[in-house]
Each structure stands twice: as C-alpha cells, then as structure tokens.
Amino acid sequence: MYKLVYFGVPGRGEASRVAMAFSGLEWEDVEVDGNTFDKMRTNGELPWNMLPVLQTPNGTIAESSAILRFAGKHSGLVTSDTFQEAKVDEFIDGMGPLARALDTTFGISDYDERIALRKALFEDGGAGKSSLEIYEKKLGESKSGWAADTEDMSIADLKLFTELFALFSGNYDGIEASVIKNYPNLLNYHSKVSNDKRIRDHYSDVTTEDIRWTFLPGAFNQ
Questions:
Q1: N or C: where does the chain have the smaller number of CB atoms within 10 Å of the terminal CB?
Q2: What total of structural domains would you count in the chain?
Q3: pLDDT at 164 over 90
C-alpha cells in the first residue's frame, strides 16, 4: 500500500494524486491538517520537513516533483525518449518561480497586506504575471498542445494544469479568476486538458461548489 500524504487542498500534491490514480497501484490519499503536519515533522516522519510525502513499501519519498516523477512512471506519463523526458523536467523546474513567489504570501496574517501582495503578483512587473506570460508563450509554441510539446499528456501537464488553475479557485484570497482571461493559450490549454477523458473521468464527482471546480470543462467560460 502506498500512501500519499498532503493537506486537503490541491496545492503541490494534486498532480501526484492524479498520477497515482492513473498508476494502477494500490494507494491511499491521506489528507492531514496543520496539527498532524506539525506532529509528523516533530516525529521525524518528513525527510525535508515538508509535505507532500509518498510512503512506499521501500520507504518515504519527499518533494513534490520527485513524487510526481515516481508516480508518473507508474502511470505511463513519463516518456522513454530521453530528450522529451528532459524537456518535461525543464518545464516542471521552470514553474519554480511562481511557486516561490506565492510562498512569500503565506503566513501573512494581515488580510489587507496579504491581498495586496497577491494582487501585485499578477500586475505589471509581478512574478505571477511574468510566469503566466512564459506559460502562454510556451503553449503557443507547442505543436502538440501539451505543455512540454510531448506527443501525449505528461507529468508536466498534470503539474501545470493542477497547480496553475487551482490558483483561481477562490482558495487563494486576492487572486481573481478573471486574471486568466487575458491568456488565450492558457484557456485553450485548460479546455484541452479538462476535456481529456482521463482527466474528465478523474474529476467526474467534482461539482462547481467544490474547491476543484477550476479543473472542470468550461470552468472559465463565465
């Protein structure tokens, strides 16, 4: 039994959740709260003192990208072509600046300050806007329409789709869904991935009231 341990939000664990669901492995999605996270950290259960972690029969794997690559190999979403594999890794690593920029807004208790910082990320000169512009350009250059220009969906797509569009779910106060409407390639990409049968079936039980509503087809049509 494999156990993927993360908080009850999409965040950095969602791509691995999807990959594990596709893998055929026997696994459990373990959602924890802040208190459990603190206990795991105190007890030395987290190799890098962070979540997510994947508990396996051989030991614990930490770091979201490492977990995603492991799960992706079992789900057939990691290509055997070494160049394409490197391009997938390149895209995954290239998403780092947006995640690091958002990290600076967590832990800020003052509501107005947190809102202002997050809004600024997606305005001119902000790290969020710069990242979206890069993704927009990359997708415009992709002949296949997939993130890393692979022949089929890859783990780069799971990461981009789940981490990017989750930002506009309302879970991150100060980040409005209207931001994404300025990026036509990203909207076309959302339609491509959300309508893929594998993804559509995976989120078939999700409603528009769910925190994962942005993963549904047509989520940004209104």
A1: C
A2: 2
A3: yes
